[in-house]
Amino acid sequence: MGKLDGRVVVITGAARGQGEQEARLFAAEGARVVLADVLDEQGRALAKELGEDTARYVHLDVSREDDWTAAVATAKDAFGAIDGLVNNAGILRFNELTRTPLAEFQEIVQVNQTGCFLGIRTVAPEIGAAGGGTIVNTSSCTGLTGMALVGAYAASKHAVLGLTRVAALELAPRGIRVNAVCPGAVDTPMTNPAVFDPAADPDSGRQAMDELYRKLVPLGRAGRPEEVARLALFLSCADSSYITGQPFVVDGGWLAGVGLF
Questions:
Q1: CA distance 107 to 91
Q2: Which of 36-40, 89-93, 185-189 has the lowest mean pLDDT?
Q3: Mean pLDDT lowest among 11-20, 60-69, 207-216, 238-247
């Protein structure tokens, strides 16, 4: 018996990285999953792999209200109801604050912050109508502290925690629990230097990042997407039935304090 038997969960950014691992794990635990992303080819391939009885793919730009409306319609048409949401979609850009173009700042806010807001606003009424359920928002360690060169990203992730707390208070009477995962360094395509510089060598970039994480993270490595997925599962199932409005850090000890190494 799976931890999510009978549940229907919408997962954004589900075509790869953390979202893909969340979709795979949730499906393995008995959920029917709606995979939402802008990476149509990868998303459709994953839905096909998981099977029609388990998964559907829908194109979703999380910053667009119409796309959210369409995603809800797809979920209800396929599976009848929605009782879970994982707001996983996000983007990351590196830049000094004083050199960050307004358009870049706004793009990050639109995806990371506005996308989370629209997800809650659109899907929460459906979860309430289904009798209650869960929402898991993806913040970041930088939603709890600062980090140089990611000012726009950090601002958006601080905002996600604010939305999480307010949503938890307002939605508790409807039987909806709302929590946030706060990953540290996680090995996903979003953190690959080649994403930001097409001329970069992915292998050498990965080696440099691995060396950095060995120095910065007490556990000596970047996290794996499936490790974040297991936390999202915990917050989406009955194991966390008395938890709402909370941030959960999964960072290998990065924020624990100053080490001796």
A1: 9
A2: 185-189
A3: 207-216
How many Å apart are CA 15 and CA 90, to the nearest integer?
A: 12
Residue type, 33: V
Assess whether pLDDT exceeds 60 at residue 193: no
Point out the catalytic residue in the list 57, 153, 213, 242.
153
* Closest to 127 (Cα-Cα) out of 75, 88, 164: 75
Asked if 188 and 152 count as a contact pair (C-beta separation under 8 A), the reply is no
Long-range contacts for 237-240 (Cβ within 8 Å, ≥24 apart)?
Answer: 237/3, 237/4, 237/29, 237/134, 238/3, 239/3, 240/177, 240/179
E-only strand ranges, 77-158: 84-87, 133-138
**C-alpha pair distances (Å), 112 with each of 77, 105, 168, 206, 252:** 27, 11, 18, 25, 23
> Is the pLDDT reported for residue 195 higher than 80?
no
Tell me the C-alpha distance between 113 and 219, whole Å.
30
For the question of residue 153 being annotated catalytic, the response is yes
Q: What is the pLDDT of residues 93-118, one digit of tens each?
A: 999 999 999 999 999 999 999 999 99
In a 13 Å sphere around the CA of 30, the CA atoms on its Cβ side amount to 9
Distance, in Å, from the CA atom of 60 to the CA atom of 38, rounded to the nearest integer, reads 6
CB 116 within 8 A of CB 160: yes
CB 243 within 8 A of CB 235: yes
| Dihedral over alpha carbons 48, 54, 59, 62 (to 10 degrees) | -140
